[in-house]
Design a protein that fits this description.
- The structure is a homodimer of 240-residue chains.
- In chain A, strand 1 and strand 2 form a beta hairpin.
- Chain A has 2 domains: 63 residues, Orthogonal Bundle (Arc Repressor Mutant, subunit A), CATH 1.10.10.10; 160 residues, Chorismate lyase, CATH 3.40.1410.10.
- Chain A is of the alpha+beta class and 240 residues long.
- In chain A, helix 2 crosses helix 3 and helix 6 packs across helix 7.
- The interface between A and B is medium-sized, with 34 and 34 residues.
- Strand 10 of chain A pairs antiparallel with strand 7 of chain B, so a sheet runs across the interface.
- Chain A binds a DNA duplex (21 and 21 nucleotides) through helix 3.
- Chains A, B: This is Phosphonate metabolism transcriptional regulator PhnF.
- Chains A, B: One of its GO terms (molecular function) is DNA-binding transcription factor activity.
- Chains A, B: Pfam families: GntR, UTRA.
- Chains A, B: One of its GO terms (biological process) is negative regulation of DNA-templated transcription.
Amino acid sequence: MIAGDEGIARWRKVADAIRAMIDDSRGAMEQLPVEAALAERFQVNRHTVRRAIAVLQAEGILRAERGRGTFVERRPARIAYPVGARTRFSENITAQSRQPAGRLIASGREPATAPIAAALGLRLGAPLHRLESMNVADGLPMSMATSWFPAERFPGIVAAYAETGSITRALAAEGVDDYRRMETRVSAARVSPADAEHLACPADAVVLVTHSVNLDAEERPIQFSHSRFLADRIEMVFRT
Amino acid sequence: MIAGDEGIARWRKVADAIRAMIDDSRGAMEQLPVEAALAERFQVNRHTVRRAIAVLQAEGILRAERGRGTFVERRPARIAYPVGARTRFSENITAQSRQPAGRLIASGREPATAPIAAALGLRLGAPLHRLESMNVADGLPMSMATSWFPAERFPGIVAAYAETGSITRALAAEGVDDYRRMETRVSAARVSPADAEHLACPADAVVLVTHSVNLDAEERPIQFSHSRFLADRIEMVFRT
DNA sequence: TTATATTTGTGCGTATGTATA
DNA sequence: CTATACATACGCACAAATATA
């Protein structure tokens, strides 16, 4: 295909060639030729083309749709998500004139594991309410979150969230007028299969993973949460 | 393979079964049976097993080595990387009794593009020094960074970095005794092929992507940087 | 040190399923 | 209903890296 490229697998060369095609078109190419045509053009088997397309899908450059074709992804700008002591999902989203919504996915009562007990200042095994939720902006899924609350202090937190779709309002219903975020730990990973299902994203999407602790006005921990934000839809902004 | 699972692809079922095997072993399983054995056990073609293994590799659960076998990844704990106004890579790393090192990968002189000019408060096309570097802790690559500095104010910044391996010391050599970080924007993505080469990581690794601006004591922007941290080696910690 | 076997990686051919146009 | 286009699955063959006798 190219001179002096003996040691490189064909599917890599095909992937590079397709990437170059897209770059060269400068945004003009919206759809890829069909797999059979690409296989013919590069003189390889259709499987080899498919492997190349698979990696380009993983890179977020292409999106294949069964029965329709393979399309070049135009990536939308990320929503900025300022994180600070007073971070609230709904406020962040409404501030960008988008429509926020929180949906209860699942909930349960469970004993505190070591890291959560430590974060919340509880004894090991203390009863917690676990709340799995999804956050949406303008109907587009943005993130999944798992939150733990001390069950004794917040007996009705799950019901309150189910009704209001907002952690802030659910906490208010349980008597917490104000709270602030203490620490946010940020990492990243591939989306889990279960989250991918809810977020309606590719199985190999990348998520920003955060762990954070919220404190009430008396500096008592009230919530430990673990959120997964779709990395191609959100960008976190920290001011220091 | 399992009753009542008609609509699910075989490779998915195999992937789920392997994931369950690993979970069930509770860390005891270090190596997977060979592909042929798995194909026999699950009564599928070897390609089907390979596809399942491919997704588990993408999830970071497995690592295949040609000629040796397929191994279960034990994931090492991430290094905490506190980010604040006074974030310095070397201080962060030494604070955890690890040995930091910065290496100059490439450099160049180029005109400011619109976003960089805006971030640095320069006119469009103003001359910049671009500095590509790699940061290492204990000999293990941690991140790649691209930094831009106003070329007129910092004519010798590249040489100073090449000599010291530290942005802080290079800026000091150029007359900046102190600086602070203004804003950090955090997202995530798959590693680029070029970065994967330098970081010696899998081609499908996930990176935390940050964009940040540093200011000198007079609040003048002195540096715009774009860093890519390997997400499985580092966790950023923001205190708010 | 040298063969040989083992194990993963690549590539092709073929067939069939499923969603879309 | 038919043709198109991507998705899944199997079988075969050989290459490349590693392990073992």
